[in-house]
Amino acid sequence: MGKKGGSKHLKRLAAPRVWSIKRKGIKFAVKPMPGPHPKDFCIPLQMVLIDYLKVAENRREAKRILAERKVKVDGRVRTELKYPVGLMDVIELIPTEEYYRVLPSKKGVLILQGIGKEEADFKLCLIKDKVTNKGGHVQLNLHDGRNVLIKVKDPRNPVEDIYKTQDVLQISLPEQEVLSHIKLETGVIVLIVRGKNIGYVGKLKEIIRFMGPYENVARVELEDGTVLETALKYIFPIGYEKPVISLPEVQ
Fold it and tell me: What's the domain range around 229?
């Protein structure tokens, strides 16, 4: 009979390509626990502390740092070594007052972008889908597993519901109050978060929609005038005149 359950670890050579880690010398890496982000697009906190930030040399030290409640993710203390952090999450090292946002790079890996305290007080969340509950209120389901309830006075005329899927909410941390709304529309600045053009930033020039099983396409114009095409589902609005988040200067 086979072993019950899955392995607690995975070989580094078989680890998700988005992990910016050394794949030789150490055989195994920690496997992230199930959470709000896809398993192939997140980083376990143990790896954040050891491989990315290098504030711990091994699992024991990382475990101690978390047990002493020195790390926050999106404004809440996290103590699990395998807790997964992913796109747009904000990580705080409490003792040193250091803050980072998880972003994709042009190399195809997830990176930790250093940010200031002001920027650490919010995050951007993509609306994945929306549902209407029995009271007529609208629930927005976001890319990081959380949801926001938009209360509607008159379900027959829901004027408060101005949100569409793939729009982005800027929300406060940890209170989760909606600070602003970035619509998916031409002219908006977008970050490409998946695919061969991952990490590029530009203005949304055009949306090409297809009938049937074909993927809708977004045309994104970079600062130098180059136009990239990517799947519409791979773009993430991040601002109008300029991005509302800090982006890496060199990738």
Answer: 189-239
